[in-house]
């Protein structure tokens, strides 16, 4: 692959692979290295990045690209997941909200509406368009 970093204050990297395909990756800092994999599956080309920030994609209401890792925010704190589908239980445990049965988990979607996330099924698809952040709410003794 041929890496061409533009000079000046532009925030993108253009990478050309051996087939001449071009991938543009937005980059906030010259110190950030992003690994990109281009693979073919089922007759389509899939571009997979190393890590994707779902909040950034959600705020723009676009589908996050397929990635090796997903950065999410739970109650304002960033967490990295090595898989696209995670349960509400896994999100709560990663955020140290235990016992998980004492918390409600919601995902804030583009436009500001909230959707409740169940503990186990169905899992959350971190590649779903529009997810901005996750927020937790402690349940009182009479709820849940």
Briefly characterize the structure:
The chain is mainly beta and 144 residues long. It is 9% helix and 46% strand.
Instruction: Please state the structural category.
Output: mainly beta
Q: What is the strand arrangement across the widest sheet?
A: 4-5-6-7
What is the count of helical runs? 2
Give a short account of the largest sheet. Answer: 4 strands, mixed
| Cα shape | elongated
Strand content: over 45%
Radius of gyration: 18 Å
Instruction: Count the beta strands.
Output: 12
Helix content: under 10%
What is the CA–CA distance across the termini?
Answer: 53 Å
Mean pLDDT: 81
Secondary-structure element pattern, one letter each: EEEEEHEEEHEEEE
**Unreliable segments (pLDDT under 50, ≥5 consecutive)?**
1-12, 27-32
Topology (elements, then pairings):
Layout: E1 2-4, E2 12-16, E3 22-26, E4 36-41, E5 44-53, H1 54-59, E6 66-74, E7 77-81, E8 85-86, H2 88-94, E9 103-109, E10 114-117, E11 124-125, E12 131-138
What does this 3D model show about the protein?
Residues 1-12 and 27-32 have low confidence and may be disordered. The chain has helices at 54-59, 88-94; strands at residues 2-4, 12-16, 22-26, 36-41, 44-53, 66-74, 77-81, 85-86, 103-109, 114-117, 124-125, 131-138. It contains 2 helices and 12 strands, in the order E-E-E-E-E-H-E-E-E-H-E-E-E-E. The chain is elongated and about 55 Å long. It starts with a strand and ends in a 6-residue tail after the last strand.
């Amino acid at each position: 692959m041929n890496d061409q970093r533009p000079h000046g204050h532009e925030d993108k990297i253009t990478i050309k692979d051996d087939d001449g395909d071009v991938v543009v990756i937005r980059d906030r800092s010259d110190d950030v290295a992003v690994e990109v994999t281009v693979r073919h599956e089922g007759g389509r080309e899939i571009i997979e990045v190393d890590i994707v920030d779902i909040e950034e994609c959600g705020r723009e209401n676009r589908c996050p690209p397929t990635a090796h890792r997903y950065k999410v925010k739970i109650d304002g704190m960033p967490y990295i997941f090595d898989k696209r589908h995670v349960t509400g239980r896994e999100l709560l445990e990663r955020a140290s909200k235990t016992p998980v049965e004492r918390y409600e988990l919601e995902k804030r979607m583009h436009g500001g509406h909230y959707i409740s996330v169940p503990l186990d099924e169905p899992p959350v698809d971190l590649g779903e368009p529009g997810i901005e952040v996750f927020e937790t709410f402690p349940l009182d003794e009479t709820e849940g």
